[in-house]
Specification:
This protein is of the alpha/beta class. About 55% of the residues lie in helices and about 15% in strands.
């Protein structure tokens, strides 16, 4: 001890300052309450080992902190290059970044962010939520519009003891489903400050949706049309039903039908849709009743053609038909006059008109509705 005191007194060993001496004394006595000459070296070695471990941990923490500072500074420079052009992404410039943070806080930017987030939450809930509701409600609205058409279809048999009924089926594409999922993400949940990561994700999603809405690129225009045109979100099925509404056959296309059956299906749907558009439900006759059909029955047989004509007559339409001469005998009971148009020389068109009197029409079996007929030879022009 005397030698140590001599070394301290001579300056060969620096004297420990008072507060450091107190801390070292606390560390020594934490290991050994009674410090004597015999245990001083051993206790000192243990204290040194503890200090070295703490130093190593502190250096590791400093290294990690430095890496975090470098990463955050690099991200800040990438996001805001104009305000950080004079700074590097190194730890040495950390004080400059902290000064910039103090300036941002002094100008109240966090308050502006909170107000912006509140406004964005309100707008997204109101506007995006409203758009989402309209998309979900669209199939039901289409069903409501189809209901009067189905009522019109019940006015005439589609086949013997069978009627046609249209059924709406929701069928959204993957693109539309992804769009709806984005709208749900934006409109639902909370944008609160306690979940900034989620709020930023919602904002990024909303920004991308708005960018595509505003884009003039062809691919984005196609995407916008697919997402917003709700008519594309549904498909239609045609069912053959009996008097009790039971379905006996269902068609999702005309692929399994003959050409005549396809035309018949189209004519029935067309007639019902026209009546829905042109006549009130309780009106026997449409407000505008003249329908022009150009070669509408060229693929249908006699039975299907007459059945289709029956439905137009049932719906109160006056028909002007352009058809080949081969169908003249089939449609004769439904018309009151016919005009033949020919151009055999391909230089001059010849026309002739034939009018049936009432007795001829009755003999032909015509019961209701007069119509005009235009027909043309399939090889005339």
């Amino acid at each position: 001890m005397t030698r140590i005191e001599d070394d301290v007194n001579s300056g060969r060993v620096a004297e420990v300052e008072g507060h450091l001496g107190e801390q070292l004394d606390e560390r020594f006595r934490k290991i050994q309450r009674s410090i004597k000459r015999e245990n001083l070296a051993e206790v000192g070695q243990q204290v040194s080992q503890v200090l070295q471990e703490e130093k190593d941990r502190a250096q590791a923490d400093a290294s990690r902190s430095g890496q975090s500072v470098t990463r955050l500074a690099a991200e800040f420079k990438a996001a805001w290059p104009s305000v950080s052009s004079q700074l590097t992404a190194e730890v040495d410039d950390r004080r400059a970044y902290l000064s910039m943070l103090d300036e941002i806080l002094a100008h109240g930017l966090p308050d502006h962010e909170n107000r912006f987030r509140d406004l964005l939450q309100q707008r997204s809930r109101d506007l995006i939520g409203e758009l989402l509701n309209e998309i979900h409600a669209a199939p039901r609205e289409i069903e409501d519009r189809v209901a009067p058409i189905n009522s019109s279809l019940l006015r005439s048999q589609f086949d013997e003891d069978r009627y046609l009924r249209l059924k709406v089926k929701t069928r959204r594409s993957e693109t539309v489903n992804a769009f709806i999922a984005d709208l749900r993400l934006v409109a639902s949940g909370s944008w609160g400050e306690d979940d900034m990561e989620t709020a930023e994700k919602k904002y990024d999603t909303l920004a991308e949706v708005m960018r595509r809405f505003d884009s003039s690129e062809h691919i984005d225009k196609v995407w916008k049309n697919q997402c917003l045109d709700t008519r594309l979100h549904v498909s239609f099925l045609a069912e053959e039903i009996d008097d009790h509404g039971r379905a006996h056959a269902t068609y999702d296309s005309g692929a399994a039908m003959s050409g005549g059956q396809q035309q018949k299906l189209v004519i029935f749907c067309l007639a019902a849709a026209l009546r829905y558009q042109l006549a009130d439900p309780d009106e026997a006759i449409s407000k505008y009743g003249t329908i022009i059909l150009d070669e509408a029955f060229d693929k249908a047989d006699t039975r299907y053609t007459r059945m289709a004509l029956d439905i137009f007559i049932e719906f109160g339409f006056h028909m002007v038909l352009a058809t080949p001469q081969k169908l003249l005998q089939t449609i004769e009971p439904y018309v009151g006059a016919a005009t033949s148009i020919e151009n055999p020389s391909r230089q001059k068109t010849l026309t002739s008109t034939m009018v049936w009197d009432e007795s001829e029409r009755e003999e032909a079996g015509e019961a209701e509705s007069s119509a005009a007929l235009e027909f043309e030879e399939s090889d005339a022009q």
